[in-house]
Specification:
- It is a single chain.
- This protein is α+β, with helices and mostly antiparallel strands and 123 residues long.
- The protein has a domain of 70 residues: OB fold (Dihydrolipoamide Acetyltransferase, E2P).
- Helices cover 18% and strands 33% of the residues.
- The longest helix is centred in the first third of the chain and has 17 residues.
- The N and C termini lie far apart (77 Å).
Length: 123
């Protein structure tokens, strides 16, 4: 009994090679670099400040001592999650949301387009 299917074992057909060659350039068009990203949607209660991670979970927000909540999420310029330890000592302009106990829970590092806009809660 032969359970090995040899249908896929041969060399790729010309059609497959042509399709791959035509679709590869399109993959590059779908991804956006941080400079091309527009403005991300922020929650209505978001605040703006400068974040400095001193010794996680201890941070400074606008020059005052503060704390990250357990499970806090920090999103970078490309909207991917960042680890707080990797950001130690950097002074970053961010939007942030606090949890009900007052700890910083959600943080978004701002790109140039986002930093130029004012938040609705900002004077």
């Amino acid at each position: 009994m032969n359970r090995c299917h040899t249908r896929f074992a041969g060399p790729p057909s010309r059609r497959k090679i042509l399709l791959t060659a035509l679709t590869l350039p399109l993959w590059g068009l779908s991804s956006q670099s941080p400079a091309q990203m527009g403005v991300r949607p922020f929650p209505p209660g978001a605040e703006r400040g400068t974040l400095v991670v001193t010794y996680p979970p201890v941070i400074q927000m606008n020059g005052k001592p503060d704390r990250l909540s357990p499970g806090a999420r920090i999103r970078g310029l490309n909207n991917m999650l960042l680890m707080s330890g990797a950001m130690a000592g950097q002074n970053l302009l961010v939007n942030f949301v606090r949890n009900p106990t007052g700890e910083v829970h959600e943080v978004w590092v701002l790109n140039e387009a986002e930093a130029a806009l004012k938040l609705p809660t900002q004077p």
